[in-house]
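Sample intake sheet
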Amino acid sequence: DGPLTIGYFARVCPEKGFHHAVEAFVLLRKTPGTPAHRLRASGWLGENDRPFFDEQVKQLEAAGLAADFEYVPSPG
């Protein structure tokens, strides 16, 4: 009965398209009549890709959607 969840499970990097998941999430949330949903991501995040990840989180913050995003670190 809670909000729908959009999942991303892959290495968090530009090559795997994490930014596309973020962009799609923002567009969906801004579309009138779309049911409530959240974005949940998991996958390996290397130090080289940390600035990329931080930039995506900033995009979510700018859209007012950071509270509806969760990153779950990949099991090590």
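Comment: The mean pLDDT is 94. The two ends are 32 Å apart (CA to CA).
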